[in-house]
Every structure is written in structure tokens, then in C-alpha cells.
Model the fold of this input.
Amino acid sequence: MPSHPKSKVSRPKSQKAYAAAGVDVDLGNAVKRGIQRLVRETHGPEVLGKIGGFGGLFRPDFRGMKEPVLVSSVDGVGTKLKIAFATGRHDTIGQDLVNHCIDDIAVVGARPLFFLDYLASATLEPAVFTQILKGFAKACKAGGCALIGGETAQMPGMYLPGEYDVAGTIVGVVDRAKMLDGSRVKKGDVLIGLASNGLHTNGYSLARKVLFDQLGLTPASKLEGVKGTLGDELLRVHKNYQPLMAGLPPRVLKAAAHITGGGLIDNLPRVLPSTLDARIDVGTWKVPAIFQHIGQAGKIDPVEMHQVFNMGIGMVLIVAEKDVAATLRHTRGAVIGRIVPGGRGVVRLEGL
Amino acid sequence: MPSHPKSKVSRPKSQKAYAAAGVDVDLGNAVKRGIQRLVRETHGPEVLGKIGGFGGLFRPDFRGMKEPVLVSSVDGVGTKLKIAFATGRHDTIGQDLVNHCIDDIAVVGARPLFFLDYLASATLEPAVFTQILKGFAKACKAGGCALIGGETAQMPGMYLPGEYDVAGTIVGVVDRAKMLDGSRVKKGDVLIGLASNGLHTNGYSLARKVLFDQLGLTPASKLEGVKGTLGDELLRVHKNYQPLMAGLPPRVLKAAAHITGGGLIDNLPRVLPSTLDARIDVGTWKVPAIFQHIGQAGKIDPVEMHQVFNMGIGMVLIVAEKDVAATLRHTRGAVIGRIVPGGRGVVRLEGL
Done:
């Protein structure tokens, strides 16, 4: 977290006018200090002690790399936030965001180095903010990623009471020669789908419209085939696939696609050579019940379902036929399709 | 900008259900494509061609550096956004954010490498978003910083119509031996203040309360001593001081403090050794009229004014007495104070 490590300044006891305008500087600092221990636990030897707190300092260890490439990505969690607001559970959102960002850079073969968060609200509720920041710290620690900076913005009149927005930026590294760029993808290669943990962070505006507005459900509702409450299901944490992917033998992974907004249909073509298509057999994995409920109740076209939601597949790996067995053993994924000649670099969904 | 470089997928013509839920995927992509040229103009040879668009790829050139340290920072522009909303001028906000971030890492001696933006709203208004993104691109190009990634989030029900929030993350680099850490600051060193360009990005909640709510002014109002309209004044772009600072002879700059939220009182102590104080004579520079209007009309304690606003000083440099003349010539700054023994690492304002 950023901040003011030295507060021993000759200032008035309280900032009366600023507080009256809705900004509580002391409270913000107190929340940040409260989670300093958690943040420090994410710091390895590459993180240098702070100087003044203006910027995070990271001395990267690029030993063993010939040509380090920094891979960065920024994201939010969309209206999954509305589920956190409705349930009062704020400890998962930060984990969603960190894991989403890690997956976004893992698809080019990068490992995470550091993460910075942005957290904005109208007024700062210490208990809520502490929960959110704990989520960031928890996922950063689990993902081997230093939580090196953050901004906690108080913007009176910009957000509804009790609401907030979060954004996160990750920076990772990959040796250029090991960068996954899809160039080794060939006809006959196999698509291996790794199971998602629910909706992850995409499609929530549509899911909420169908489940809450149309069906009149609440986060406490139970749905057939869905474990726990609807709130539990909709808050399940976005999976971090990077450790699994990094654990594959060298050069086995030819390409990978993180299935986010746009689903299989929009995300897989990003890593396909333009001369090849991906043929996916949608009968090869069990679509989780939550997606079936949304699709049926919302009378949503099955193709659109596969373009808005991950439909149970959070990451797709592309490997050679000879490496399929080893990859399945290591990842517990499923063969969901194959690379076929086609010449348009598109996804063909079979069996809808 | 991130995105979907290959849209040639077998998908339905429009995403009917998703659009009905308030998310227009095609429009978002169109806006991003529209500014691709501007974004590419910020890219030097260190930016590698995109792979799938999941992450930005930057191959840093650290030649000549012994121990490169990555310096990162994340920020927003606070409720300065409300001035953009009120005036309908959205081309400056992105510049504010980029320059603010550059200044935050310049204080440890870092030069910017790349920047990522986050832009969230309820609905995507193409003309507005194009303006905002142009602001990012303009300041990145001027600051020698690659605009390497971004997220444009549509969150129905989270933001008011016509409103949005922005956040930005910067990553820069400094050779560890050249890092400014305040350790060379000594008794008798001189504080040189560099003029700000108005409020920059801090204190807007209080400024708006006094100027608009209490005084009943509008962005079209004229104020004595203020050039242009009040809207013009409140939208003036946060200055980028990094080129000036980088242009000083080696080792002249001992420390620097970016005067943001917390003003001189909270920001300068961040870089002071705990055995020394900073004595600032507030009569040594002309406080711009806008701050005088806010302070007088709001009946705000002068100390609090110096803790909420920059009061006309956007950056403070600390240099040895012998280097003062050269620094003033190069930066056109003003001597505003001196480092004195004191033992608390605080700012003492004289002449209030």
C-alpha cells in the first residue's frame, strides 16, 4: 500500500474542512497501516524498502534469462462487485482480481512479479476495506506476487454508499525465447480445457439480470445442481492457473487462452494462427448447472452463452497429441477439441 | 489498449441478451480500434507486437544500468472528474493521470517505461471515451512512456449516466546507485519549489464544496486573479516535472517530493531524514489566486490549506547550497526553504 509512513508532522489534529467535504485522511491511513503485515508477507527479497512511499520498488532477479520481457495487464472484476455488495462478503473480490490478472499474463508464459491495486469508494468503511485488501494480499501471497502498491481513493458523490470499484495491474516476466505466441500451434494439436470455478469474473451483468431481475432470486436462494447458496456460487474465486501451467515440462505448452469476457468464441482465436481453426466439441465437458440455469431462464442463444460466459472452462491449453496424456495427468483437464485446418483463425463450436 | 485483434469469429451478429443487460461489446471494441494509431505512437522499440492481447509486452533496455530497479505507482484523479463531467471536457483527465503517475516515480529518480489505464463507466459513450483515451495517449507520448495496456469496463448500475472513473498504473526504472532516497540530504540544503499548474489532482472535494456549494459558482464563472473561467482553472493539467528533473546534472538532486494529497506538510517529510526538519517560508512564492479564493470563502485554517492543496508548489527539489543557482536556472523554480536541524523529520511552515 502506498501512503505516509511518517505521520509525525506538525499538522492540525483533524482536517476539519476536508472531513466535512467527505474525505477522512486519517481513517484511510489507519486502514492501510492495519494490513501492513499482510502486505509485507507478499514481499520477497526483490522488493526494496520503501522510499517515501511514492512508488513501489522492485529489483527484479532476471538471472537465467537471456532476454526478459515484462508482461503487464490491468483489469477489474466488473459487476461481480454487486454480488459482494449484496452479500456483504468482501474478502473474495481481491482474490478474483489478482488471479484474473495472473492468468492474463500466464497465457504468454509469464510468471507474476508484482501487483498494484486501485480501490475507490465514496466513503471509506474500514471493515470492508480491510476485507478487500486482505483478499489482494492473500491471492498475491498464494500466487508468488508482491503486492507492491495501491491507491485507496475516497470520492464523495462518485459511488453509492456501501459500493466501491476495484482495479488491479500486474507485471510479470517471461524469457523471450520461451514466450508463448501460438507460432508452434499445428493442425492436429489438442485443446485441453481446465475447469473454471463458476463464472469467474465475466458475464455478471447478464447473470444478475436473469437470476435476480427475471427469476426474482436472491443471494440466499438455492438452485438445483448448485452447491451452497446462489451467493456462494456467484462469489466463487477466479482460479489461478499459472502454477499448473508453469509445472508442465518445457515446451509442452504451445499456446494458452484465458477464457474471460468473450468466452471460448472470442478468446481462443487470440492465440490461433490465422490459417487454422479450433474445433470444440461442447459435449466433452459438463457445463456447470449455474450456466444452464442462466441460459434456460434467460432464453439466451447457446452461441451467445459461449461468448459471454466461460461455460465451465477457465483456461484452454494447446498441446501436441503426444503430450496430451501427460498434460491431462498434471492438470486434470479434459480434451475439449482439436486444431483443424480452416484458414480463418476462428472457433467452431460443435454439438450445440 | 487491450482487446480482441481478431474479431473474425463465428458469432451471432449482435449479442442481444448481453446488450439488453447494458453491455455493448462491439461498441467497446470500436472505440479501442479508433485510437489504435494514437496508442501506437507511444510505442518505441521496447514494445513488442501483441500476442493475443491478453498482456502488454515490453522488452526493457537496461543497458548502462548496473542494478535496474522497477518503480511502480498507481493512482486516480479523484473528484477532478466531476469538473470534467460538469464541463463536458474529457481530454485533460488522462493527461492528469499520466503526469501524476510519472511525477510519483520521478521523485526516486525513475524514468517512465510504460503505463496502463483503467476506465470504468455504466455505459460506453464513444465520443467521451475517445477523448479520455486521447488524453492518455497524448501525455504518454509527451512523457516518453508506452501506453501498453488498458481496460475499458462497462458496469451497468455502478456509475451514474455520463460519469466514469479512471485509474492508471505506471512502471519506470532507475539504476539502484542513482536512486534518490534522501540519504544525502544535509543541514543547510535548500528547498526549491517548482510551480504547479493549479490544483493538479488534489483537494477537489473540498474545492468543489466551497466554490460550487457554498459560493454558488459554476464552471463558467470568472474569479478575480484567475485566468479564464473557473472550469478552465480547475481543469488545468497536472504538470510532468520528470524531464526537468532528469535534465539536472548528475547527483545535483538529493531528494524530491511530489506535492499531492497531504500537501507540503505530508509529502515533504516522506523524503526527510528523521533527524532533520524542513523549514518553509510561505512568503517566498505567490500562492495562486484560486487557493486564496478557496481558503477565504471556506474559512479554512491556513495549515489545513497547506495539507489539502499544493498551494502553487507541485514539486519540491532538495539540493546543496552550491547547486542552487544552476538548479534555479534550469528549472525556473524558487527557493522556498531550507533543511534545518530539528530531529523530527517534519515540515515547519513559517510566515503563515
User: Anything to note?
Assistant: DSSP finds 13 helices and eleven strands in chain A. The first strand of chain A starts at residue 56 and ends at 58. Residues 1-14 of chain A have pLDDT under 50 and may be disordered.
